């Protein structure tokens, strides 16, 4: 298992918020600063959040950025 795969399994808290002004949903991982995305439906936002989490972690690993532990 690669380091990225191990990190993807960490249970970071996912926040999903409906956006009444723009429509759709905003999904973010508060523990991963700046890891945020949006989509039309809640289901799409959750899937997009997984992609955003992967991209965030890949960037952190390639730039030696500290990866925070989960709060749970």
Could you characterize the architecture of this molecule?
The two termini are 22 Å apart. The mean pLDDT is 96. The chain is α+β, with helices and mostly antiparallel strands and 72 residues long. A 3-stranded antiparallel β-sheet has the order 1-2-3, with helices on one face. It is built from 2 helices and 3 strands; from the N terminus they run αβββα. A hairpin with a 7-residue loop joins strand 2 and strand 3. The protein is elongated, with a radius of gyration of 13 Å.
Main attributes of the structure:
17% strand, 72 residues, 2 helices, 38% helix, alpha+beta, three-stranded antiparallel sheet
The rough form would be described as elongated
In terms of per-residue confidence, which ranges show pLDDT below 50 for 5 or more consecutive residues? Answer: none
The arrangement of helices and strands along the chain is HEEEH
Assembly status: single chain
